[in-house]
Design goal:
By secondary structure, the chain is mainly α. Among the domains are: 18-126, no CATH class; 129-241; 435-527, Tetratricopeptide repeat domain (Serine Threonine Protein Phosphatase 5, Tetratricopeptide repeat, Alpha Horseshoe), CATH 1.25.40.10. It is built from 24 helices and five strands. The protein has helices at residues 43-69, 79-86, 114-126, 128-159, 181-209, 213-226, 231-243, 247-260, 265-277, 281-294, 299-311, 315-328, 333-345, 349-362, 367-379, 383-396, 401-413, 417-430, 437-446, 450-463, 468-480, 484-496, 502-507, 518-525, and strands at residues 26-36, 93-99, 103-113, 170-173, 176-179. A three-stranded antiparallel β-sheet has the order 1-3-2. Strands 4-5 form a two-stranded antiparallel ribbon. A hairpin with a 2-residue loop joins strand 4 and strand 5 (176-179). Helix 7 (231-243) runs antiparallel to helix 8, helix 9 runs parallel beside helix 11 (299-311) and helix 10 (281-294) runs antiparallel to helix 11. It starts with 25 loop residues before the first strand and ends with a helix. Mean pLDDT is 89; it is low at 12-23 and 170-174.
Length: 527
Amino acid sequence: MKQFIKFLSIMVIAFLFLTATAFAEKVTFVKEYNYNASDLDSKVSSRTIALEQVKRLLLEELGTYLISETEVKNFRLTKDQVTTYSAGVVSAEVVDEKWDGKTYYLKAKVSADTVDVTKALQNIVNDKQKSKELEDVRKKAAEFSKEIERLKKELAIAKTDTKKPEQKGVEKVEGKVIYTSQALIKQYNEAVKGLSATDWFEKGYKSAISGNYQQAINDYNKAIQLNPQLATAYNNRGLAYDNLGNYQQAINDYNKAIQLNPQFALAYNNRGLAYIKLGNHQQAINDFNKAIQLNPQYAMAYIARGLAYARVGNYQQYIKDFNKTIELNPQYAMAYNNRGTAYGELGNYQQAIKDFTKAIELNPQFALAYNNRGLAYIKLGNHQQAINDFNKVIELDPKLAEAYAARGHSYADIGNYQQAIKDYSKAIELNSKYAEYDARGLAYARVGDSQRAINDLNKALELKPNDNGVYYNGACLYSVLNKPEKACDYLKKSIQKGYSDWNWIKKDKDFDNIRNSSCYKEIMAGK
């Protein structure tokens, strides 16, 4: 039997989902705010300013609570940082609002699941690029708010000057540029639009980490409409398109973000990831090189470049990039897991096990690391330890089809074919397109159920008609059923389709029934 041992690396993802947690504590804060409109304000601008102020009050109160009552106290964050990052995790919900032409009254609330918010904040803290992004957006919001206040004062001064009440633009007085009333009004409106854009950006960020990518796109569309120069909005809209599988549109948005900000390392990195998904690995590597050039401490770019090198079979460079990632962040479990997959692909299973074990030590809930360590144990013939690891994977992630398939391989290798059949069936149930039909078919053949064995082989060929491994397992199946001519026919087709591990063919016990056949000897003679 050809075992489909495939170590699982983690593709760098932009957003992490928030999941409901049992017994989580939910808190709600409510604030009211009255904004007294100036002569510059309309109903729309008054609402924008009132919403920004009430949101600030709510986030400050939430931040105070998180620092005093939750694990956030251990994150070593300032209250301002907690407030800033929370803006990308929770949204202010307007409960009531009124406008009488002079005052805009707004009542809003923030409701938060403290466990989910804490996890989201930890993810943001661990990703320096994302934390900087939110800090920059909050900084812009503060700048727009200050600009709005400055322009109010300047207009009040300008209105007292009745010399040129209708003049538009600017004039110079004693060498200083003085803006006239109409110019100030234009600037004021632009500042209000900019402030509103930051609010839509934060809404988009929250929608994305909640997994609602279409809503995130809608939110970023509004942010871009209000502020077409907001490079981060294009980048994040690109991420949303990326998560929906629209990689070309994602690349278009990354291109625009880079055009607006040529120093935007994150946009280069994200574009590179999109190119990987489109199969353009060299262009991906070029983008990761640029991201690293712009920011040599950017751990995620080394991870992404390593994955690109893995896709083209350059595992030595893959390992070098993950060595660098671990140097930059020795506590990064994913880096150890991914480096372990490279060692596994190179056949260095002992070193792979060391890396997977380190990943598990850093993150005991890391299902893929257990899965990969189990695969390495299979390669070393330690099937019981492999089964123990796959049991743990299934405990942590009961829907990971690969874990059932891998455990099935282990049970098959130790002769427990009935349990192998159960595991292969579960893998197929979880993923109907999962190509374990041929493996299950071979297990059926070994217990003498020839009809189910052949039915499964046919289904595997239907799903993967050009897969040399399926034909190889078909050859094993017919050999076990003691049908030499059919077995040799499938073995020939497997070789024609690219199977070339002659050493394994020589020692594969599944071929014991046909080794003395003339067709088998003919195949081996022509290798």
